Amino acid sequence: MNKRLANLEKHGYDFRVAVNIFEDTVVEIPQRRNDEARILALGILNNHVIAVVYTWRGKARRIISARKASRKERNLFESNT
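Above: the chain's sequence. Below: its structure in token form.
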């Protein structure tokens, strides 16, 4: 199973749809994992705050995961928008 389908099954979000959060306001928090620069992006999708973790590959975003935002993440988004 590929990463996109695994994420869809586990979290209910398709990467191809989750990328739409970047069309509106997002709160981005830099992260670092395994020596890779990652960004946690919090944004709205279908009236819900979701969390999208991604990294840059050249000029393209490579989504690592997309899931429902935690309460803490929702509060962070709401306090920064």
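The mean pLDDT is 94.
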